[in-house]
Design brief:
4 helices, single chain, seven-stranded antiparallel beta sheet, 7 strands, globular, alpha+beta
C-alpha cells in the first residue's frame, strides 16, 4: 500500500487565505520548492502560501491541510507527470529529465512524510525564513475514533 497526501478542507477558510485554492481530494506535495528564493511579500495570500500552504498537484493552488490517503501506482505516476510539467513550465527546469528528477524528490519527501502515519492523519505545515533558508516543519494530527452519544 502506498500512502500520499490529499487536500482536505474542514471549512471554507482557505478561500480567503489562498489564491488559487487547491480543491478537496486533490493530491498534494509540500511545494516548499516554490519559496527557495523567498524575499517576503506584502501580499497576505502569498504570505499564507509561504507560511502554511500545501501545493495541490493539478490546480497548483494551496491548502492548509492534507490527509494521509492510499494512492495507486498509476495515480502516483500522474502526480509525477503533472508536477514535472509544472516545474518545467513555471520554475524553469532546464529539460524534462531535470523536471522529472525534481518531481521525484518532492514526491519521495511526501511519501516519506506519509509512510509512518495512519490513514486519515491530518498534516499541517509551517514555514519560516531563517538565515540558512526556508525552514519547514510538519505536524501530524492523528485521527480519533468516532463515538456516538
Amino acid at each position: 500500500m502506498l500512502k500520499f497526501a490529499r487536500v482536505v478542507h474542514f471549512d471554507d477558510s482557505d478561500l480567503s487565505l489562498y489564491d488559487p485554492v487547491a480543491p478537496s481530494g486533490e493530491w498534494a506535495v509540500s511545494g516548499g520548492f516554490a519559496f527557495a528564493d523567498w524575499q517576503g511579500s506584502e501580499d497576505e495570500k502569498a504570505r499564507n502560501a509561504f507560511e502554511k500552504g500545501w501545493l495541490g498537484v493539478g490546480s497548483f493552488g494551496r491548502a492548509t491541510a492534507v490527509m494521509v490517503a492510499e494512492i495507486e501506482p498509476l495515480q502516483l505516476g500522474e502526480v509525477r507527470s503533472r508536477l514535472a510539467g509544472y516545474l518545467a513550465r513555471d520554475f524553469g527546469a532546464p529539460d524534462h529529465k531535470a523536471a522529472l528528477a525534481a518531481a521525484d524528490q518532492e514526491i519521495a519527501f511526501m511519501q516519506e512524510l506519509c509512510e509512518s502515519q495512519d490513514l486519515n492523519t491530518v498534516l499541517l505545515v509551517h514555514r519560516e525564513m531563517t538565515e540558512a533558508g526556508v525552514h519547514e516543519e510538519c505536524r501530524a494530527v492523528k485521527p480519533r475514533a468516532a463515538t456516538v452519544h
